[in-house]
């Protein structure tokens, strides 16, 4: 029988997703100055829930409020106040209101913490990001005691998430954040038990998964988001990713989401080569003409991993989604950016009233020629890239405020609003 988008997906732990579409994690930036969930989370996730995805994964929730991916993150850091727990429960209820699952993505950004939040964030090694602009301070190498503490923090955040009413968690080990940094031989040059060989570089992730599973029990979904590759020479390679997937299978992970890239090479956002050429290895040429950015990696990953796979990034057509489901390269389809500009788009897809999702990314550039993504000037390429990112952030803000998206918003204006809002939110943080 052909697999349809509306088919349920049983998970190894016994939970069942009601359909094959997931609202993928996207940073919301609508937490308060104390890094608690707010009513804007309720409004935002209720709107997305109405569209009917079988799963909603929250934007990254941090395990340590001293290091944030951006101001406005929610953090589950230590015991929760009654107010913070009440806000999390409201968040969970909203995210489940459409009948699907609601999972918390738990994370630590490591060196990808803005300087305005933490000027010297913890990282595997004291290796700075290769990004212009001075937005990220020099990281410091973590002690082993800190690593062990952070493993416990992942487990604690997961346990609190279950208590709040969320139905699963996803450990973020992709996109150049802390666990991804440990996996990368370019970012992790440690010589102790947490660096060197792939087994040592993956130790943090494996211990975090084990601690999380122990904290939430065998019947609660535990997912991992893993880079297929960093797309940087000397970074985390596809062959490494396959081996990590094999190890995660042994840990009884319920769903493995395949993504890729870092801030330095933002493949996950559909942007590549902004600062350096894309580096790839270990991928068959025959698999490179796929709709999704990462479905080509999932073909091989499906052979290595013993758990269901989810692929996010680039899927826009029903035909492309169903082809991926039926060739076995993925069991779930992650949808992100289309839901920022068209928050109801999944419903139309599930009901058979639409065969294609909007592709906003095609028009999100400042202009043609030297103003385009192919500009000879790196600063222009960066403004285009971060302006497009800011455009999606502004749409999320509007939905969270009970408004419809503003599709007429320009890239440069979005970039400026994004910069201003991030500075204001960082300044307002209570530390």
Low-confidence runs (pLDDT<50, min 5 residues)? 285-289
Biggest sheet features: 8 strands, parallel, barrel
Helix content bin: 25-40%
Name of the CATH homologous superfamily: Aldolase class I
**Cα end-to-end separation:** 55 Å
Please indicate the count of domains.
1
Number of helices: 13
Q: List how many beta strands DSSP finds.
A: 13
The proportion of strand residues reads 5-15%
Element-by-element helix/strand order: EEEHEEHEEEHEHHHEHEHEHEHHHH
Q: Would you give an account of this structure?
A:
The protein is an alpha/beta fold. The protein is built from 13 helices and 13 strands. Helix 3 packs parallel to helix 6, helix 7 crosses helix 8 and helix 12 packs across helix 13. The chain is globular, with a radius of gyration of 20 Å. The protein starts with 8 loop residues before the first strand and ends with a helix. About 1% of the residues have low confidence.
Labels describing this entry:
single chain, alpha/beta, 431 residues, globular, TIM Barrel
Outline the fold blueprint:
Layout: E1 9-10, E2 16-17, E3 21-23, H1 39-50, E4 55-57, E5 61-62, H2 82-96, E6 101-107, E7 122-123, E8 140-141, H3 144-164, E9 168-173, H4 178-183, H5 198-201, H6 203-216, E10 222-227, H7 238-250, E11 255-259, H8 295-304, E12 309-312, H9 318-326, E13 332-335, H10 338-341, H11 345-350, H12 378-400, H13 411-428
Parallel strand pairs: 3-4, 3-13, 4-6, 5-6, 6-9, 7-8, 9-10, 10-11, 11-12, 12-13
Antiparallel strand pairs: 1-2
């Amino acid at each position: 029988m052909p697999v349809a988008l509306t088919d349920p997906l049983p998970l190894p732990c016994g939970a069942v997703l009601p359909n094959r579409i997931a609202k993928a994690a996207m940073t919301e930036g609508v937490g308060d100055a104390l890094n608690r969930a707010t009513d804007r989370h309720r409004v935002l996730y209720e709107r997305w829930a109405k569209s009917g995805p079988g799963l909603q994964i929250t934007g990254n929730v941090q395990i340590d409020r001293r290091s944030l991916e951006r101001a406005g993150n929610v953090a589950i850091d230590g015991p929760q106040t009654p107010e913070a727990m009440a806000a999390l429960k409201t968040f969970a209820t909203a995210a489940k209101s459409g009948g699907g699952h609601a999972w918390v993505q738990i994370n630590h950004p490591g060196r990808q913490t803005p300087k305005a939040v933490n000027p010297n964030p913890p990282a595997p090694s004291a290796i700075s990001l290769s990004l212009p602009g001075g937005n990220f301070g020099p990281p410091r190498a973590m002690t082993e005691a800190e690593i062990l503490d952070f493993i416990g923090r992942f487990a604690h955040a997961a346990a609190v998430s279950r208590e709040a009413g969320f139905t699963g968690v996803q450990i973020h080990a992709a996109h150049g954040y802390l666990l991804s940094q440990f996996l990368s031989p370019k970012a992790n040059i440690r010589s102790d038990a947490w660096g060197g060989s792939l087994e040592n570089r993956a130790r943090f992730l494996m211990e975090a998964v084990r601690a999380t599973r122990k904290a939430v029990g065998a019947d609660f979904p535990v997912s991992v988001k893993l880079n297929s590759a960093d797309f940087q020479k000397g970074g985390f390679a596809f062959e490494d990713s396959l081996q990590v997937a094999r190890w995660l299978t042994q840990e009884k992970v319920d769903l493995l989401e395949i993504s890729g890239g870092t801030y330095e090479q933002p493949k996950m956002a559909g942007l590549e080569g902004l600062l350096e050429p894309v580096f790839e290895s270990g991928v068959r040429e025959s698999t490179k003409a796929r709709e999704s950015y990462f479905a080509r990696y999932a073909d091989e990953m499906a052979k290595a991993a013993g758990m269901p796979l989810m692929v996010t990034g680039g899927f826009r057509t029903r035909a492309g989604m169903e082809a991926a489901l039926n060739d076995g390269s993925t069991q779930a389809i992650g949808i992100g950016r289309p839901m920022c500009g068209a928050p109801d788009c999944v419903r139309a897809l599930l009901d058979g009233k639409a065969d294609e999702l909007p592709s906003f990314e095609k028009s999100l550039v400042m202009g043609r020629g030297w103003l385009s993504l192919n500009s000879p000037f790196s600063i222009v390429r960066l403004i285009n890239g971060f302006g497009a990112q800011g455009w999606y952030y502004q749409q999320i803000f509007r939905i969270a405020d009970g408004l419809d998206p503003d599709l007429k918003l320009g890239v440069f204006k979005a970039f400026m609003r994004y910069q201003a809002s991030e500075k204001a939110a960082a300044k307002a943080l209570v530390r």
